TrEMBL record:
<feature type="transmembrane region" description="Helical">
    <location>
        <begin position="236"/>
        <end position="255"/>
    </location>
</feature>
<dbReference type="InterPro" id="IPR012136">
    <property type="entry name" value="NADH_DH_b"/>
</dbReference>
<keyword id="KW-0521">NADP</keyword>
<keyword id="KW-0812">Transmembrane</keyword>
<feature type="transmembrane region" description="Helical">
    <location>
        <begin position="161"/>
        <end position="178"/>
    </location>
</feature>
<feature type="domain" description="NADP transhydrogenase beta-like">
    <location>
        <begin position="7"/>
        <end position="455"/>
    </location>
</feature>
<comment type="function">
    <text>The transhydrogenation between NADH and NADP is coupled to respiration and ATP hydrolysis and functions as a proton pump across the membrane.</text>
</comment>
<keyword id="KW-0997">Cell inner membrane</keyword>
<protein>
    <recommendedName>
        <fullName>NAD(P) transhydrogenase subunit beta</fullName>
        <ecNumber>7.1.1.1</ecNumber>
    </recommendedName>
</protein>
<keyword id="KW-1278">Translocase</keyword>
<keyword id="KW-1003">Cell membrane</keyword>
<comment type="similarity">
    <text>Belongs to the PNT beta subunit family.</text>
</comment>
<feature type="transmembrane region" description="Helical">
    <location>
        <begin position="117"/>
        <end position="140"/>
    </location>
</feature>
<keyword id="KW-1133">Transmembrane helix</keyword>
<dbReference type="Pfam" id="PF02233">
    <property type="entry name" value="PNTB"/>
</dbReference>
<feature type="transmembrane region" description="Helical">
    <location>
        <begin position="56"/>
        <end position="74"/>
    </location>
</feature>
<feature type="transmembrane region" description="Helical">
    <location>
        <begin position="6"/>
        <end position="23"/>
    </location>
</feature>
């Protein structure tokens, strides 16, 4: 039986890795998810076959409850709410690891008869899992607008308080590891880590939220891997390391895309719902346009680049955008899509939305590829993207986003911005692009505006 279980684990891990390879593109992502899911089923079966496994009724009840909650939630969630769901489900993983660590503490009388490496791995999993769970809940609250999107901070006390909480969790962990078996010690450790998770994410604003989601995902993976070491469960070790490694790589890539260090983000991000005044007190001229004029301008263009942002997601305008692009392509106009790594509220948010609308994958161009093409672009159509198109990132050393790589739409021959109003983006700062003489503003709901453009294109 031991050899059979080992073979099942090897098959499961191979499917994990093969499925992960499929997530590199929209066309293979669904198949990759299915393959990885089959691998997880095999890993679960292998774990259930482990000698000494009991409490089958509780296991079945847990699986049933998870399915009853998880399946409807995943099927009914809107694409605009996908970041919230990712944050919430990721947090549940960390919370599960923290609870398992607590159970191990109780059933082993405070790790009295366990090797030290088991106690250390379990305590590490408890701290990181608790941080991930509570931090993910705060991220969910910010994304769902239950909590304010702007940074909530203690000011100068923020970092000292965080340091005290971390030190408290570590000290309690050391006391437990050297023989402390009072349950209050473990409860105190979990509470200290929980408060730390809340205090770390509260000061982080909406502009940094894609990086936070990715970082918390990596932490959940690391906590699961550590718990796997404590339980001697190969499936948890491998799956946790895959999640932790991929999440860490993605976090680093996202931070680089914003030209911000991960410590700077954790120390307190920027971004919120309140616009920051330019301080000049002068009224800046803004040129507005109509759907009819926009349609004519694009109909006589040679190349159009669509720049999607969170505004497109909120309006659910991706299908209307796809229809507009098809009409333009029918007139012989080249249409591409410029994708910024942190556009939206989670990594790959725009890719997911556009893939849902059957936009050809080869038309989705990453920032480094598309930036060199804006100079040859006749019309850049910006749909709800704000901070990732703000020229202040290149021109204003005093701007909070200065140095952040942006989509250089201002290099296009003309720019049309679709927005409901002149409100700021997640970073809470004014967008200089709106006042560029080459820019025209088409105010209104993005889906309705694109729909009007479609009708005008049909009549041309």
């Amino acid at each position: 039986m031991t050899s059979f279980i080992a073979v099942l684990y090897i098959i499961a891990f191979a499917l994990f890795i093969y499925g992960l390879m499929g997530l590199t593109g929209p066309r293979t992502a669904v198949r990759g998810n299915a393959i990885a899911a089959v691998g997880m089923v095999i890993a679960v079966v292998a774990t259930l076959l482990t000698p000494g496994m009991s409490n089958w009724l509780l296991i079945a009840l847990g699986v049933a409850l998870g399915a009853v909650v998880g399946v409807p939630a995943a099927r009914k969630v809107k694409m605009t709410a996908m970041p919230q769901m990712v944050a919430l489900f990721n947090g549940v993983g960390g919370g599960a690891v923290a609870l398992i660590a607590w159970v191990e503490f109780r059933t082993s009388d405070g790790y009295a008869h366990e090797p030290k490496h088991v106690a250390i791995a379990s305590l590490f999993a408890a701290i990181v899992g608790s941080i991930s769970f509570w931090g993910s809940n705060v991220a969910f609250g910010k994304l769902q607008e239950i909590l304010p999107g702007k940074p909530i901070t203690l000011g100068k006390l923020q970092q000292p308080v965080n340091a005290v909480l971390l030190l408290a969790a570590l000290v309690l962990g050391v006391v437990i590891a050297v023989g402390g078996d009072a349950e209050l010690l473990m409860i105190g450790l979990l509470v200290a880590a929980a408060v730390l998770g809340v205090m770390v994410v509260l000061p982080i604003g909406g502009a940094d939220m894609p990086v936070v989601i990715s970082l918390l995902n990596a932490l959940t993976g690391l906590s699961a891997a550590a718990m796997g070491l404590a339980l001697d469960n190969t499936a948890l070790i491998v799956a946790g390391m895959i999640v932790g490694a991929s999440g860490s790589i993605l976090t680093n890539l996202m931070a680089k895309a914003m030209n911000r260090s991960i410590p700077a983000i954790v120390a307190g991000g920027f971004g919120g719902t309140t616009a920051v005044s330019s301080g000049t007190g002068e009224a800046k001229p803004v040129r507005s346009t109509s759907a009819a004029d926009t349609a004519i301008q694009m109909a006589y263009a040679g190349k159009v680049v669509v720049v999607p942002g969170y505004g497109m997601a909120v309006a659910q305008a991706q299908h209307a955008v796809r229809e507009m692009a098809q009409l333009l392509e029918g007139k012989g106009i080249t249409v591409d899509y410029a994708i910024h790594p942190v556009a939206g509220r989670m990594p790959g948010h725009m890719n997911v939305l556009l893939a849902e609308a059957d936009v050809p994958y080869e038309r989705l161009k990453e920032m480094d590829e598309i930036n060199s093409e804006f100079a040859q672009t006749d019309v850049a159509l910006v749909i709800g993207a704000n901070d990732v198109t703000n020229p202040a990132a290149e021109t204003d050393p005093g701007s909070p986003i200065y140095g952040m790589p942006i989509l250089k739409v201002n290099h296009s021959r003309s720019v049309i911005v679709l927005k409901r109003g002149m409100s700021s983006g997640f970073a809470g700062i004014d967008n200089a692009l709106f006042y560029d003489p080459k820019t025209s503003m088409l105010f209104g709901d993005a889906k309705a505006s694109v729909g009007e453009i479609v009708e005008e294109l049909k009549s041309l």
